């Protein structure tokens, strides 16, 4: 392949943004009358707005061309579901876009994930730009991926970028299908895509404040209480103002306040992340949150660490259960070797968490059937069970000294 060709303009030019019911109905009819898979992408305003809602939806289908839809003025796109019933959706990194698409009523029954296909096929770089360049020989302009997509009206260069994101997605899908078929992995990929399409919406995370960056420094329960109060206060303000929580107060500032336990607004203002350009009223609301945490009784304070479901961290295994540590070591070596042989990332071959759980609590009888059942019980797809079971049987038997 020669030098890649820059892709500068969509084939039919930049389509107008669909922002009304009549135009939306026309587009839905056009896509229903189209043929083949439909390329789908969504743009969010991560880092600018609260939450992960979609601010632009791009679609492309043979016979219908490209459509750019404003989900702010057209918040219910469930009619696309009926129009595209049974049609395969082509997405890149589907799990990133599906939650925000689900919010506006766009739920696929079949899909093809070009990023996941690239992983299974062994491509070292699986970003959309890299895949389009390596597989199709075109260079996509990627300059606007991190802009504030809630901006209205959207500038023309951003719309061009958005349209180009779905321009070659079906072509990429077709090329990857051929490559997966050539490698004997197409059935594996189809099982993965079916699992993504069938997965229920993710449950809300328990104690999301525990994911504050820098939490590893916070040891005492009183300090944990400060992190929780500040995080929840920040979240309420961010939601009300519809801005990213990080724009209200940084994680680093939350941790700094938790470690310092400031006695008053003056002490708080001296901490990193609070003094610079922060008004007295803002400082007072953060100090009030700190004071609330200080006033909590022992029983009201959060417990350190999250309740562990499953095995302890692997670094503790050698002391707690040397036999389990030996099983895990053998299993990891076997999975690594198999992943290299199949030319794919280990985590796509089998979830590391699944391997840990089976090594910590292996089936009573270590044989192909029981290990296969255990893998399936943790959500492994049939192709993964088939590939990984022999490796785990050998590792478990080896770890037991059989």
UniProtKB/TrEMBL annotation:
Region annotated Disordered, chain positions: 297-316
Molecular function via GO: 3'-5' exonuclease activity; nucleic acid binding; nucleotide binding
Keyword Transport part of the UniProt annotation: no
The keyword Hydrolase is annotated on this UniProt entry: yes
Biological process annotations from GO: nucleobase-containing compound metabolic process
UniProt-listed Pfam families: DNA_pol_A_exo1 (PF01612), DNA_pol_A_exoN (PF18305), HRDC (PF00570)
Keywords tagged on the record: Exonuclease, Hydrolase, Nuclease
Domain HRDC, first and last residues per copy: 220-300
PROSITE patterns given in the database record: HRDC
Protein name, entry field: 3'-5' exonuclease
Organism of provenance: Streptomyces roseochromogenus subsp. oscitans DS 12.976
Lineage: Bacteria, Bacillati, Actinomycetota, Actinomycetes, Kitasatosporales
